[in-house]
Amino acid sequence: MTQAERRAYLIGELLKERHERFFLPEEEGEQKRLLRALFNVRGPLAASPEFLEVQDAYLREEIASRGVTSARDIEPVEGRLCIRQGDITTLECGAVVNAANRRMLGCFCPNHGCIDNAIHTFAGVQLRLFCASMMGGRLEQTGGARITPAFNLPCDFVVHAVGPEVRGPLTPGHERLLAAAYEACFRCAEKYRVRSMAFCCISTGEFRFPPGRAAEIAVETVRSCIDRYPWMEKVIFNVFKDSDAAIYQRLLG
């Protein structure tokens, strides 16, 4: 099957699952948006082997077409610490960190721009089902993290970290919880001796933690943690925005 044929098949199967009439937009970009939206709103349900085979082939080719970066090719800027600007779903490394919410089920908002949405979209429907089974209806504590397989992402694992949500002024309690989320990611990585881990900017998006202070806490916490994990070869601060790249470059020289 071509990518276009896979995309049409997946859209058809997901609409059938929702008992909706089949509709395939003419433009490729609109087809991709529709497919992503259908992935986003789908609950944590099992899928047929046939569906998964087509989905996996489609997602892996989509990721490859956007260009995959290997952690091996990223040079440290300080000790074992690195900065990378780009899409975290195209990073080949031991684990990427997802800014999750307490339900740990991903973002259900169609085509939302958050990292939680992107990671669940390109990992595939298996990730939401795995997370639902792992959580069993419970909520993760703020400052906690869980590790899961990455399924179709080029990394080996996803560490889902729950940072604090800032409503009103920033407090020392928010800062402690953000540091705790970074520490929890290291503990998750330790279980599988993950050799490279890429952090997103936890809590700075929908959770409204000020980016500058969040980066300071991230760098301070990672510096204090990494010596306890000598087998970890690289920690990557993966940023997307130019403004975040400038902050980390300032902090790490």
UniProtKB/TrEMBL annotation:
<dbReference type="InterPro" id="IPR002589">
    <property type="entry name" value="Macro_dom"/>
</dbReference>
<dbReference type="InterPro" id="IPR043472">
    <property type="entry name" value="Macro_dom-like"/>
</dbReference>
<dbReference type="Pfam" id="PF01661">
    <property type="entry name" value="Macro"/>
</dbReference>
<protein>
    <submittedName>
        <fullName>Protein-ADP-ribose hydrolase</fullName>
    </submittedName>
</protein>
<dbReference type="GO" id="GO:0016787">
    <property type="term" value="F:hydrolase activity"/>
</dbReference>
<keyword id="KW-0378">Hydrolase</keyword>
<feature type="domain" description="Macro">
    <location>
        <begin position="68"/>
        <end position="253"/>
    </location>
</feature>
